[in-house]
Design brief:
Low-confidence stretches: none
Structural class: mainly alpha
Distance between the termini: 23 Å
Number of strands: 2
Shape: globular
Strand content: 5-15%
Number of helices: 5
Length: 76
Amino acid sequence: MAALLEDSPPTSEAVITDVRHLLTHGEEALAFDTMCSWIYEDALPITRQYRANLVAMADEMATPRSVHRLDGLVID
């Protein structure tokens, strides 16, 4: 999860801080959903590979709903 955050498109320090805070308190699923929500809400472009990494993490965490709406943000 930390690697996904480091590679993520959100550049807002507040968002990054919030996600890190959740991670340090053992809230991995909430941190992941928060990061995906910010990517979606800010309509940040993501690569196919990054989306694939998000999907793999969502599958691992059993939170597939987090990444479904990101399909429209994929760039080549």
